[in-house]
Design brief:
The two termini are about 15 Å apart. The protein has one domain (about 1-65). It contains three helices and no strands. Helix content is about 80%, strand content about 0%. It is mainly α.
Length: about 70
């Protein structure tokens, strides 16, 4: 069960990386900014930074537990 959660967390982190692409690139970041899906750019940036940090820490903890 823990491996499935770890796998889903990996996929979600990859999705977050695509959301955080620079504004001048064409991709999910331009879609998110044009549709205001995440709110204002400043609050969206703070929210994505916090979410990415938390999920990365959880990912490393789970990786350590699964590989020990």
């Amino acid at each position: 069960m823990l491996k499935y959660i770890w796998f889903l967390l990996s996929i979600f982190l990859i999705f977050l990386v695509f959301l955080r692409m620079p504004q001048e690139n064409i991709g999910l970041s331009s879609f998110a900014n044009k549709t205001d899906i995440l709110g204002s750019p400043t609050s969206a940036q703070k929210s994505l930074n916090l979410l990415t940090t938390i999920l990365t820490l959880i990912y490393f903890i789970m990786a350590f537990l699964l590989n020990s």
